[in-house]
Records
---
Amino acid sequence: MRKTIEDIVAEATIKDIHIRYCRGVDRMDFDLLRSCFHPDAVTDYGYFGGSIDDFIASARAQIPMSLVTTHNTGNQIVEVNGDTAWAEHYTVATHRMAADALGPERDFVPAVRYIDHLECRDGDRRIAR
């Protein structure tokens, strides 16, 4: 199927949303992180799910437990269907953990696959689920 200019712009916007999400986590910029989601967004990370407010509260508690966090995104696929879209992003996250009772300073490096459902509402495209 041939893509329109509007589809290409929507794809670029969605990829940018994901990169801003990663930056928000890495920089503990919770306003930036929140801006990636519609206010009524629902999250499901497997180990955690809830409203965007629940997610931000959890992130505020969990992210500072790492000394440094970095996300590196590789493969991204976006399928746009008018005002809705589906996106899949492969990311490797590195979390530098402080020395503690479990061991010396170390890296926790999960490979992550984000699957986002996005909506464009009044010209504002963000993650809905």
---
Amino acid sequence: RQYGPRQPAFARATAVRLADGGTGLLISGTASVVGHATAHPDDAMAQTEEAASNLDALLSHAAGATGDPGLASFGSRSLARVYVRHAEDWPAIRERLHKRWPSLKLCGLRGDICRSDLMVEIEAWHGT
């Protein structure tokens, strides 16, 4: 009720079998949200860390749920779109994410994000 007339309904991620026998994981926009609340309002770097931790938890869960241990961490077949509210935050966010996942290909885009106190949101494609 706090965010709208209905509860949101979406998949956090969807796994698909690829023609080469690998697994693909399509990951919905992931941000600095814990439970239903925004964590670290208006702090782009802390939100980047929280979103990255949420992604790590999602990857770990996907690896277990699919039986594909290659899904446990982003690799060379992984791509991410990173939406930032303020363009000037992008260089520091890019550096932080690159340190965490060196082989993850990143694309930074300036744009509005669904909640006014969110500064960064990440969506990704991850394949094994």
---
Amino acid sequence: MAGRDNRVIIVTGASRGLGRMIALRFGAAGARIAVNYLARQNDALAVADSITNQGGEALPLQADVRRETMVDAMIDAVVKRWGTVDVLVNNAGITGDGLAVRMSEQEWDDVLATNLTGPFHCIRAVSR
């Protein structure tokens, strides 16, 4: 990415792993990054600090993508801060490691809610 990238980008699940790397890469290019996290606040703050220390802008936002009201509040906070959302990276996800026969119905529901319903909530919210 040559030059400064002024896009507003939301990265879900940005406190660690692939989401962290995506947020840092876009942040280094100059994009304004909403660093979404569920529970790892310190990790999300570290990602946001790294982006701002490189001269970028970052906004850490706690939201459970499984909950539509939390997603709506996250999108509203981003739009209030930067006026728009240009890119959504639906990265938040969980795995139910193990055999399906050993997986509880609650574990299955959590995987579906995070990996399928979560992106649906995010896409719908930014599309408005």
---
Amino acid sequence: VMLRDGSFLVSSWAASAIYHGKPGSGAPFEAVIKDVPSPADIGYDLGRNRVLVPLFQKNVLEIHTLAL
């Protein structure tokens, strides 16, 4: 998911995490949400700064508030 500032949130099934980073910045992407098993296609609520994380294997939707 691309955010307003051009940075991205990316889900990783292998790491069970959501990463945040900005391509070309020289800084590595950092895990901002951890321990989320099987995160599927994430969404982002711009108005509330919330990440919507469907957990594919659990048939559940988790909502996490981020302060980026």
